[in-house]
Specification:
By secondary structure, the protein is mainly alpha-helical. The protein has 6 helices and 2 strands.
Amino acid sequence: MSKRFIPTLSYGLAFALALPLAASGAHRPSVAGIAKASDKPQPTPVVRVQSPKAIHPLKPGKQRQAARSKTPRAPQRPINLNTATVTELMQLPRIGSSTAERIVAFRKEHGGFKRAEEVMNVKGIGEKSFAKLKPFLIVAAPVQ
């Protein structure tokens, strides 16, 4: 090997050895082989990422409204499936406007409910939903 190639080889070797050290966060020695105070590893700054809710908290009124929406709804008295309006059906737990409209449409299409279990034929109401609704439902003859 020539003298001219040796510095390149040593530089490449030093670079190859320093790369894993740099990746691990270890400090690199100075050129003279003595570490300077500035070459000592510095603590990594901690960056805290806040969730969107922490950045934009709800206003007090909206917090109360959000808390109210989490509580289960229950009507004051049982609801007759054959006479209930969309608004009355929406008082039932887990029944929104779309499902209430589907119940009314099903009732008009099939001429009313004969048993409370027939509400499971409405899209969006399965066995689990019906089990939660059953205590609040009655089926009486529709008023003509």
